[in-house]
Amino acid sequence: VLVNQFLLLAAVLFCMGVYGVIVRRNAVLVLMSIELILNSVNLNMIAFAMANGSIDGQTFALFIITVAAAEVGVGLAIVLLIYRNRKSVVLDELSTMKG
Amino acid sequence: VVAQNIFFGLFAAVMLIGGFRVVTTRNVVHAALWLVTVLAGAAAQYILLAAEFVAVTQVLVYIGAIVVLLLFGTMLTRARIGQEGDLDNRRYRVGGILTALVLLGTLGYVLIDHFSDERLPEDPTVFRTADVSDSIFGQYLLPFWALSFVLLAALVGAIVLARRD
């Protein structure tokens, strides 16, 4: 089994996530795209852990999963707050900081 | 090895279709459900890579908690669930596709250039969950503590942000 097939799969998922972050207007969908990106990194970590016969990759993957959970919690709280104040989660309309 | 390749292809196809639908579907709830297929496919790949503890954690934390959170977020931030007109920003679509393709080309070139002949070991070192815990609570104890505080701060912060007062 090649290492590369896992790495290429992760690369394609990563690019899909980047596309989603750029194109989506709904804040919740952007959060989902970020989850895609984090998952592709995790897949890389596990693949390298297996390829190098080392446990560190699995440990890092668990840490990344934890950080992702924290990120989604805070992110959704912020999205809820924006929705409560602006009645919208469309990212283009949040242009107060535009010069 | 052949069986491993077949299952890799199967799960990879599921993940690619799911990921594509997550970023293209016109329905927020469907996007969350497609995300579940991607996450489950990733968990299956972890099992193929002999990381069963990470796979179980992936199912529990991602599918069990994060997707549910996302669905709650969807529910709380829009009045009606169903088809939504403009989930995409059309102005950015060409730029987004270009960025993704350039990134994919670069990543693909580097990966194929550097890892094309590297194979997974035929009889890999098998790590048990005890080894994972030894690693987390041994070598990586300090990052683990830091991460505990990150999680605590994030949860307290989320409650403070989201509560109505």
Key features of this structure:
heterodimer; A: 99 residues; mainly alpha; elongated; B: mainly alpha
Entry summary:
The complex is a heterodimer of chains A (99) and B (165). Chain A is built from three helices and no strands. With 99 residues, chain A is mainly α.
Provide structural commentary.
The complex is a heterodimer of chains A (99) and B (165). Chain A is mainly α. Chain A is built from three helices and no strands. In chain A, α1 (3-23) packs antiparallel against α2 and α2 packs antiparallel against α3. The radius of gyration of chain A is 17 Å and the shape is elongated. With 165 residues, chain B is mostly helical. Chain B is 75% helix and 0% strand. Chain B contains six helices and no strands. The model of chain B has no long low-confidence stretch (mean pLDDT 88). The chains are: A mainly alpha (99), B mainly alpha (165). At the A-B interface, α1, α2 and α3 of A face α1, α2, α3, α4 and α5 of B.
Quickly count the helices of chain B.
6
Strand count, sense and closure of the main sheet of chain B?
Answer: none
- For this structure, the quaternary state is heterodimer
The biggest chain-chain interface is: A-B, 69 and 87 residues
Please give the count of helices of chain A: 3
Shape of chain A from CA axes?
Answer: elongated
Query: What is the CA-based Rg of chain B, rounded?
Result: 20 Å
Reading the helices and strands of chain A in chain order gives HHH
Question: Topology of this protein?
Answer:
The complex is a heterodimer of chains A (99) and B (165).
Chain A: H1 3-23, H2 27-52, H3 56-86
Helix pairs in contact in A: 1-2, 2-3
Chain B: H1 2-24, H2 28-48, H3 52-77, H4 93-115, H5 129-137, H6 141-162
Helix pairs in contact in B: 1-2, 2-3
